[in-house]
Amino acid sequence: MTPLLWIVAIVGVVLALTPKWTRPDLYFAVTVQTDFAFTPQARRILHRYWLEIALHTLIALALANLAGVEKGWSMPLGIGWQMIGSTWAVARARRATAEYAAAPSPVREAALPARRETLPGGWPLALGPLAFVAAAAVYAWIFWERLPQRIPVHWGLDGADRWVDRTPLNVFGFLMLLASFCAVFLLLSYGMLAWSRTISVTGERARGESRFRRVTLWLQIGLPYLVVIPGVVLAFWAEAPAVTLWPVLIIAVIVVALTMLIRMGQGGSRLADTTEHQPPIGDRTPDAAWKWGVFYYNPDDPALVVEKRFGLGYTLNFGNRWSWVLTTALLLPVVFAVAFG
Questions:
Q1: For the residues 319-340, what does the mean pLDDT come to?
Q2: Tens digit of each residue's pLDDT (9 = 90 or more) over 178-231
């Protein structure tokens, strides 16, 4: 199979496994009893969801084959169908689960001391890739004639596969792409610390949640290093040895980090003692605010960043007007990639 078809197949497997990673008192974005996932009703909902995901994945694979990789339509058709179809499958499973919804625990915890969590390694470590891009821009400005006539801007498993001419627009556009990539991960990391709230503040649940958040932060801080530094080195210094294992290293780091997060469960829920006798806590957000089980819209919630109810990690509260500012910033790498790719 082509790399695209492998991506579609892997995404299908990930979508099928995702319901197993959420908190035990959440099922397809609905607050339920902690043992609901083991009931016949839950298994029936899950099996129907698996069937729909398999169907949408097969259709996506067929569309990718029909479109032809060389025509450039494989990715938008295949991945697009898969994403829309999977969102519809989640929404249908959520609607079926709503019949078994449980009231979340009315007990709320509050921490009196100020929140002291900081970025792993501190801001100097987090700002390292952005500082490297700035230094590369200065180098390009001063030593323009030393840059190669053709600048590689895209790499695959077999090395560089796309080049552009050495022009100010191409060179500094490429650096702006890398800078926006760094800025996105800085915003995401800062948002997790300053614009979100903890769900549990004491006990095993709080410790598990903290460990989950730290691994996520380490991933968001480390990825820019793996993307930016090799990218600049290979683009500016043609005599540098080819880093054929560079894409493999990035994939390996992501796989290792995701494996750790999966073992922890969303929000570190698998690290805590969550027995069936405990009342459901969920993620402290109302079920009705989750649109199709994927998008969170709650103007009454001051939090900007919340835990996902389907999948691992965090998402935005689209009821907060600042989320649209952040969304615009998150789209900058895509804009630069289209403009300078």
A1: 74
A2: 888 898 889 888 888 888 888 877 778 888 888 999 999 999 999 999 888 888
Could you give the 3-state DSSP secondary structure of residue 108? coil
Residue identified by tokens 């003692």 is 273
What 3-state class would DSSP assign to 27? strand
- Pairs from 46-49 (Cβ < 8 Å, separation ≥ 24): 46/19, 46/93, 48/92, 48/93, 48/96, 49/19, 49/89, 49/90, 49/92, 49/93
CA gap 103, 141 in Å, rounded: 61
Give the mean pLDDT of 3-10. 79
Among the listed residues 109, 74, 285, the one whose alpha carbon sits nearest the alpha carbon of residue 206: 109
- And the tokens for 238? 């043609």
Whole-prediction pTM: 0.83
Q: Is 281 left (phi over 0), alpha (psi -120 to 50) or beta?
A: alpha
| CA neighbor of 173 nearest in space, from 332, 333, 340, 329 | 340
Q: Is 321 exposed, middle or buried (0-12, 13-18, 19+ CB in 10 A)?
A: exposed
Q: Scan for tokens 């980090």, then name that residue.
A: 257
H/E element, 139: helix 128-142
DSSP 282-333: TTSS-GGGEETTTEE--TT---SEEE-SSSSSEEEBTTSTHHHHHHHHHTHH
